[in-house]
Each structure stands twice: as C-alpha cells, then as structure tokens.
Amino acid sequence: MPLNRIFCFRRVDFLLLFPFVPESNGLSVATVNVNGVRAAVKARSEENTGLLGWLGESPAEYICLQEVRATEAEARAALAPVLADGWKLALAPAAQKGRSGVAILSRREPDAVRIGFGDPQFADSGRYIEADFGTFTLASLYLPSGEAETERQVEKDQFLKTFGEYLKPLARKRRDVLICGDWNIAHTELDIKNWKGNLKASGFLPHERAWLSEVFGEGSDWTDVQRSFHPGEAGPYSWWSFRGQAFDNDSGWRIDYHVANKQLAKRAARVVTQRAERYDLRWSDHAPVIVEYTA
C-alpha cells in the first residue's frame, strides 16, 4: 500500500487515520524486513503493489531493509527499477547464501559505509550495516532470531553481548544516530499479543527483554521511538506469522524498531506502522515502520 494513501494506527480505543506526508526539510526513514528481496519484488508484481510499487511511491529518504537474502548482483537486479530511478543501495550480504542480509536504500550517496560492529563472529553474517550521510548515521540491523535452549540461542546471546557494548559509545557521538531494523525481541507484554504463550520462547525470554531495557530503557542513551508515541498501549505490532489466523486476529509481535539517540529522538514527529489492509495484500510477514523526524 503506497505511503501517500490512508494508514491505520491500531490503538486500544480507536483507529487513528491520516495520510503520511512528510514535511519539508524533515527526515523521513522507513524500515522493513522484506523476507527475501526477490520474493518481495515478485509478490503482487502484476498489480505493482509489491515491494517495487511501495518503493516507487515512498516519500522516505532512507529505507532500511532486513533479511534481503541475496547477493549484491541479485539484489541489484531485483531492485533495478528503483535504482534506475535514483535510489542508492548499500548492502551487507551474508556469506551463507540465501540467509540474512541487510541493506540501506537512500536518495543520496552515503559518505561512508561500515559493515559489522567489531565482532569477528558476525563480520560476514549480513546482520549489520551502518552509513553516514552528513551529520546523520543510519544503521540497518537484523538481530538473530535464536531458539531457546539451542546453539542458535547461544549465538544470539553472544550477539547481544558484543552488540550491546558497541552501542554504548555510538549513542554519545555528536551526530544524529538511528538504528532501524528487526531486533527479534518483543520488549514488554505490550509488544506481543500472546505473551503468556511465549514466556519460554526466544524473542521474549527474560534476559532478552532485560537486555532491551538496558539498551533503551529509562535512563539510557537510546530511545525506542515508536513506544514513545504509544505509551501504555498494546502494539502496534509489526510482524505476524503467515500461518493460521495470526494476521487476521492481529496476533502479532512488535519487533521492528527505530532506536534513536537522544538528540534525534526528541525530533521524532510522526510514526506509522504500515499494516496491510488484508492478508492477501501483504508482500512480507513484516510491516514497514516509518518515522518522520523534524529538521
């Protein structure tokens, strides 16, 4: 669904409807896990309402993509129409073919691009890319999903440890810093519909949630931008399983975050979680999350 149409905020007591139109001189940033860029491009391509249609009408200046699952050549081929239209692509593919991969699409060339965050275990994992645009630093993150009581959870916990250390000095840089992406952790009971049934599931484990509290909880140097707009409210969720009736019942998770340092977070003006109107209109199992920041 194009961004210049009508969007819905799912709130506790009502639906707030408004067109998302960025103000001049602002900073508009979107993030979405595409669940495979080639699949997202192919989905609903006949109606031009898949990923390419969305990108073609997006007012965002910067878009963070996760789970690209493509090589540089494959991603550029899939995104060729929007790249021809002027979008610039910075990509960190995973060494393991068909897995992970993060990217940043931007309307301007980045001044610098960095891949990884200093942990050699994840250097080629396709999970973190960071780019500078003037005094603005933007990162796209795809945090491991994990699986409780398995080696996958051990890997995720190692990522949390070293990435958490990396975040501390990053927040204090004298520039605007924003980390967007699929953090694969629902922070509180407000961020997951079926929280009681997921107390022992990766993504809602106590130590994972505590880690997020350290990252952007009270007194930290980072802000969970969406939550600052929806204090005390359930959702709005950004991921729903393709299985069963999860989407129709809005049984989702809020795991796609804009995490901004304090000087940028205070300029957040509007937030939209772009939930599709119907199940059959989805081109990913995640919804884009868009935030407008004033100049």
UniProtKB/TrEMBL annotation:
GO terms for molecular function: double-stranded DNA 3'-5' DNA exonuclease activity; metal ion binding. Residues 30-286 form the Endonuclease/exonuclease/phosphatase domain. PROSITE patterns: AP_NUCLEASE_F1_4. InterPro entries: AP_endonuc_1 (IPR004808), Endo/exonu/phosph_ase_sf (IPR036691), Endo/exonuclease/phosphatase (IPR005135), ExoIII-like (IPR037493). Mg(2+) binds at N33, E67, D182, N184, D285, H286. The keyword Metal-binding applies. The record marks D256 as: Important for catalytic activity. The record marks N184 as: Transition state stabilizer. Pfam families: Exo_endo_phos. Probably binds two magnesium or manganese ions per subunit. This is Exodeoxyribonuclease III (Xth).
